[in-house]
Amino acid sequence: MRIATWNVNSVNARLPTVLAWLEAAQPDVACFQEIKCIDENFPREAFESLGYNVETHGQKSYNGVALLSKYPLSDIRRGLPGAETGGIAVDGVEAPDDQARYIEALVESPTPIRVGCIYLPNGNPVGTAKFPYKLAWFDRLNAHARDLLAHEEPLALCGDYNVIPTPQDADKPEGWVGDALFQPESRAAIRALKYLGLSDASELGNQPPGTYTFWDYQAGAWQRNHGIRIDFALLSPQAADRFRGIETHRDARDMDKPSDHVPVVVDLALD
DNA sequence: ATGGCGATCTGCGATCGA
After folding, report:
1. For A188-236, how does the pLDDT look when each residue is reduced to its tens digit (9 = 90+)?
2. Is the Cα dihedral A68, A73, A79, A81 positive or negative?
3. What is d(CA A97, CA A82) in angstroms, rounded to the nearest whole number?
4. If you ran DSSP here, which 8-state letter would residue A223 be given?
5. What are the DSSP calls for A112-133, one per residue?
6. Is residue A228's beta carbon less than 7 angstroms from any atom in nucleic acid strand B?
7. Separation in Å: B2 C1' and A119 CA
8. pTM for this one?
9. How far apart are CA A165 and CA A182, in angstroms?
10. Residue A30 banded pLDDT, cuts 50, 70, 90
11. Distance (Å) from CA A190 to C1' B2?
């Protein structure tokens, strides 16, 4: 079974590109980030026509995540636990987290797998409330991951983590030193998530350094290969046992009207 | 040394992303 994760950077602005990729790559499950629309404006019929069940957690203008699956989806969760006080505080007063960045479901494949679709906060600029919001969101994710891992079942946490874990994950690491994606706290948070017992599918597949997943639209970053690896699929032991392979679809960055991220596809023996 | 692109709608300029 193939599970894809892709930050599409607006599903409506990029619908033909997204559909063309889906038809060619044929993932069984797709995790989309940055759909940038409310649920009512998600083009669900276009995906249903390709045989997908569709669940969304949308938001006006920004963020938004979706799960597509050729198998039935159940046990849907929208948002991480702790949303009541997880937002950006205003004048020191706690606020709810109103940003749509997480959707999870049980994929009812022959061997079922729970899939979490993650759009982790960017956190820039460091020194503003956005950075502690990123770290607090990460803490909530890690707490939830710990709970899910206790089930000892196949689990994949896929998405745009907005973290450059190591210097080898950037073409020009020196250019990211002041950036929220490369702060020691951000890097420690994704390490802590892995240390709960999750395996990075990229490591299982021995992907070489330079397997980037994002290139900025600006400054000819794509043409100069100034990329970073920030999109990941993290697998529970029960999912990692069934790992068959991983592909990073670099060619998608050269499609018409490309997203600034490319899809990552993980193949698991669940069917 | 800086900006450079692309999407949204607050909509033809401001805000956000990474």
Report:
1. 999 999 999 999 999 999 999 999 999 999 999 999 999 999 999 999 9
2. negative
3. 8
4. T
5. -EEEEEEE----PSBTBTHHHH
6. yes
7. 30
8. 0.97
9. 7
10. very high
11. 32
* CB crowding A166-199: b at 16 or more within 10 Å, else e: eeebbbeeeebeebbbbbeebbebbeebbeebbb
Between CA A16 and CA A101 the distance in angstroms is 23
The Å distance, CA of A230 to C1' of B9, is 28
Separation CA A47–CA A60 (nearest Å) = 20
Return the nearest residue to B2, CA–C1': A219
**Burial status of residue A150 (CB atoms within 10 A of its CB: 0-12, 13-18, 19 or more):** exposed
Cα–Cα dist A41/A68, whole Å: 16
Count of residues in chain A: 271
* pLDDT for the residue numbered A58: 96
Any strand B atom closer than 7 Å to A101 CB? no
In Å, what is the separation between the CA of A9 and the C1' of B1?
30
Residues with Cβ within 8 Å of A80's Cβ and at least 6 positions away in sequence, in order, are A86, A97, A101, A102, A137, A140, A141, A144
